[in-house]
Structure formats: C-alpha cells, structure tokens
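In the design runs reported in the main text, the only information available to the sequence generator was the tokenized backbone. The following block is the verbatim input for one such run; it is reproduced so that readers can re-run the procedure and compare outputs position by position.
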C-alpha cells in the first residue's frame, strides 16, 4: 500500500512540474503577444486561446500536486473538536465523498472528450484547434486528483488515529 501511495505522490509531483511549465509557457506567450501587438503591430490570432488552454491545464493538472502539499482550502473547526478516532473517520468519509464526486466528473468529462474527438469538434476561432485536447485536461486532472485523494485516504487509514495532525499541512 505504501508503494502505491509513493507512486501516486511521485506522479502528482511530476504533474506539478508540468503545471508550473504550463504557467511559464502562458507567461511567455502573453509577453510575446504584447510585443507583437504593440511594438510590431501584427495580429495575434492564436495567442489568447493558447494562454487560456495553458492556464486551464496548469489549474487542472496542478490539482493533485497541491493536494500533496495539503494546500487546498479546508475548514478544520469540526475535525479539531473531535476525538482522534472521530477525526480519522470524518477525514476518510470526506475523502470518500470527494472521490465519488471526482469520479463522476471524470466519467462525464471523458465522455465529452470522446464525443469531441469522434465528431472532430474544433474551436470556432481563426486558429481552430481540436477541442478534445483542452477537454481532455478535465478528466485527466480530475482523475489524477481522485487518485491523490485515494492515496491520502490510504495514508490516513494506515496512520494511527492519534498520529493524524491537521495543523501544519501534514498527518
């Protein structure tokens, strides 16, 4: 079980790097777009859409990495008031509910991505990239996030109730 947790954590860290590179790419494209528009006076017909897709990818692919850091917003008032066993049960329950929601989102997003691929949907812009590419970011991001939540749940399951700490971003 620990090897699965370590593997998922490694995959999440890899996609954290991918997300960071997507943000860097979006910043570079934005700077290039500004330079081309204002200093050269040329048109930039694809830059804005590419920046949006890169930021979307960074957001969705960065979800599991942020989860490894326990960086998502959470309200800990109820878990802090519970005894250790109750805290552990509540954490496992909430992770389970989140995994169910993400599994549903992953399924329907994958279905939409498949339809976009089969029907060859493209963006209605001058650039017109195939939409299955940005659509695929949703099931990939949500799927990876649910895997990270599963790994976190397994880690909580293996940790004694007294060893689960909410403060400081780790357990």
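Verbatim output:
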């Amino acid at each position: 079980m620990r090897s699965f947790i370590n593997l998922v954590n490694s995959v999440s860290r890899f996609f954290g790097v991918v997300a960071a590179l997507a943000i860097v790419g979006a910043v570079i494209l934005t700077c290039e777009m500004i330079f081309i528009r204002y200093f050269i006076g040329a048109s930039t017909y694809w830059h804005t859409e590419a920046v949006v897709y890169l930021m979307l990818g960074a957001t969705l692919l960065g979800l599991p990495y942020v989860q490894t850091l326990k960086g998502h917003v959470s309200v800990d008032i109820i878990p802090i008031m519970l005894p250790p066993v109750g805290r552990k049960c509540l954490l496992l329950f909430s992770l389970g509910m989140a995994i169910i929601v993400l599994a549903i989102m992953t399924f329907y997003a994958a279905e939409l991505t498949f339809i976009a691929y089969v029907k060859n949907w493209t963006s209605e812009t001058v650039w017109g990239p195939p939409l299955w590419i940005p659509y695929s970011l949703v099931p990939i991001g949500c799927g990876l996030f649910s895997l990270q939540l599963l790994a976190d749940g397994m880690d909580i399951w293996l940790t004694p109730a007294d060893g689960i700490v909410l403060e400081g971003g780790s357990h």
